[in-house]
Amino acid sequence: MKAKENTIALLVRNRPDVLARIAGTFSGGGFNIESITANITKTPETTKIIITTKGSASTMEKLKKQLNRLVDVLSVDDLTGRMASRRELVLFRMKWSDETRSAVMAAVDLYNWKVVCMDDKYCVIEVSGRKDSIDRAIQLLDPLGLEDFSRSGMVALEKFKPE
User: Is the pTM of the predicted complex or chain greater than 0.90?
Assistant: First the structure.
């Protein structure tokens, strides 16, 4: 069975070493973390962690059971295939040239990206969207002077919470 990308949302107690134990669970099971984001919730004692990884349905079930056994994990929610909004944010540093400046700005206008800052040699562009949109932006900007980028990782929120 082919491994597919999975999105897991964890709610954990905001304590030292929680993230290290979660990462250890992934590495111990032979899973790679494709992306990870973490931040406190509206209750500062808890943190929401969104992890994307690849695996089959049966191996994901095993991983979720292992995560649920960790002391400070309050809940494990598999958002894969569920109605959830998923987004990433990327900052791109572009090196300007007379040949590329107009093409970069045309892409910014066409895709409604945001120029965060610019000077006569560089600009920083902010792009947010689905993973496939981010991947396309990288492909488009690479030949136009893409010097570096920083990618946030997936954030996700279920569109509605089932009762």
Answer: no
